[in-house]
Amino acid sequence: MIYARISGTGSFLPGDPVSNEDLVKRGIDTSDEWVTSRTGIRARHLASADVGSSDLALIAAERAIEAASCEPEDIDLIIVATSTPDFIFPSTAALLQSKLGIRNGSAAFDVQAVCSGFVYALTIAEKFIRSGSNKRALVVGAEVFSRILDWSDRGTCVLFGDGAGAVVLEASEMPGIRTTALHADGSHHPILCVPGGVAAGQVIGDPFLRMDGQAVFKFAVKVLGDVANEVLEAAGATVESLDWLIPHQANIRIIQSTARRLGVPMEKVITTVERHGNTSAASIPLALDLAVRDGRIRPGHRVIIEGVGGGFTWGAALIDF
Ligand code: ACO
After folding, report:
1. Which residue, judged by its Cα, is nearest atom 10 of ligand 1?
2. Res. 220 pLDDT band, cuts 50 70 90
3. 96 and 167 share one domain
4. How many domains are contained in the chain?
C-alpha cells in the first residue's frame, strides 16, 4: 500500500508585523481593544506592492524542500492554493515551478477554495501520490489578501494578512495522511465573496472582499466541528488520540468554539491568528510549520488540520507525523 507522508514544512511572512495600533496610525477607524476582543488578532503581515503570492510561495517552498532533504527537481507535482494569484493566468503554481528552477515538466496547477484551499490541495496531492502516479508533491498555500481588502471597510480590513506555507508530501510505506474529507455548499456564496471580475479591460463588479461576519461565524463553527468528527470516524480514531488540532486561523472565538464542540482542550490547539491574522489558504501550513519548527509537533504525533472558507467550502485531514 502506498501512503502520502509530510516530509518537510516551510513558511514565510513578508515584512514586519503590523499591529492594530499601527492600523489606527494609518487612519483605520478601529482600536486594538475592538479587534483583539472580537477576533484575538493583534498583528498581521502585509506584503509590499511589488510582492506577489508566487514570491511568498517561493521562500516557503524552498524552506519546505530543504526540510524534506530533497532538491527542487525531485518535485513531480506542484499545487498552490490561492485566491490571490499573481495573474489571471498562468497559474501561481506554474510561476512557482519556474522560480524554483524546476524543468522536469511535471504538473503544476492552482486550487481555488479560499480559506479551505490548503486542505483541498493537500487532499488532491494525496490522491495523486496514493494512486502511484506521483512520488513527491509540493503543496503550498500562498496569499496576498491585503490586495483584495477594502481599507475603508473596518469590519473586514482588520481581519486579514499575507503569507505563505508549504509542505513536501512523499510516497511512503508508512501511513501519513490517514483520512480526508472535502465539502462545499455553493448556495452560501454571498456571505463571503469578492464579487468582481475582469472584462473588456476593466474590473466588472466589486473587487473587494465582502462578508456577513455573523453568518460566517455560525457556519464556520458548525462545519469545523462536523468535519473533524468525520475524519476521526473514518479513521476509527478517537478525539483523545489527537495530539494537535490546527484549524483555519480566522478568529480566536471560532477556534475556541470549535475546540469546545470537539472536546479538544485549547492546549492542544495551534493558534497563530494573534500574530498573523487570517491569511486564508496560507493559515494552516503557516501554523503547521511553526509548530513543527518549535518542536510541538513531533514524529509519531497525530494532527487534524481543518479549513473553512468562501464558497462555502470546508474540509479536514487526519495526519500522522
Ligand atoms: N473597529 C471598531 N468598530 C468596528 C470595527 C472595527 N474594526 N468593525 C466593525 N465595527 C463596529 C460596527 O460598525 C458596529 O458598530 P455599530 O454597532 O455602531 O453599528 C459594531 O462594531 C458591531 O459590528 P458587527 O459587524 O455587528 O460586529 P460583530 O460583533 O459581528 O463582529 C466580526 C464582527 C469580528 C467580523 C464577527 O462577526 C466575526 O468574528 N465573524 C467571523 C467572521 C470571520 O472571522 N471571518 C474571517 C473570514 S471567513 C473565514 O476565514 C472562514
Report:
1. 155
2. very high
3. yes
4. 2
Residues 289 and 140 in one domain: no
Which of 20, 45, 248, 276 is an active site residue? Answer: 248
What was the pLDDT predicted at 199? 95
Same domain, 56 and 169: yes
Q: Nearest-CA neighbor of 210 among 192, 228, 225?
A: 192
Between the CA of 149 and the centroid of ligand 1 the distance, in Å, is 15
Ligand 1 centre distance from Cα of residue 216 (Å): 11
Residue recorded with cell 473588456: 200
Annotation says 20 is catalytic: no
Atom of ligand 1 nearest to the CA of 35: 7
Enclosing domain of residue 16: 3-173
Separation CA 255–CA 137 (nearest Å): 29
pTM exceeding 0.90: yes
Which pLDDT belongs to residue 217?
A: 95
Cα separation, 297 vs 35, whole angstroms: 29
Name the closest-CA residue to atom 47, ligand 1. 250
Q: How does residue 291 score in pLDDT terms, banded at 50, 70 and 90?
A: very high
Q: Render pLDDT for 248-267 as a digit per residue (tens, 0 to 9).
A: 999 999 999 999 999 999 99
Ligand 1 binding pocket includes 261 (Cβ within 6 Å): no
Q: Is the dihedral of CA 299, 276, 61, 139 positive or negative?
A: positive
Q: Determine if ligand 1 sits within 6 Å of the CB of residue 213.
A: yes
SS3 70: coil
Looking at the fold, whether 42 and 150 belong to one and the same domain comes out as yes
Q: What is the C-alpha to C-alpha distance for residues 137 and 128, in angstroms, rounded to an integer?
A: 9
Question: Do 234 and 258 belong together in one domain?
Answer: yes
Residues 57 and 94 in one domain: yes
For residue 23, what pLDDT is reported? 98
- Residue 13 sits in the same domain as residue 158: yes
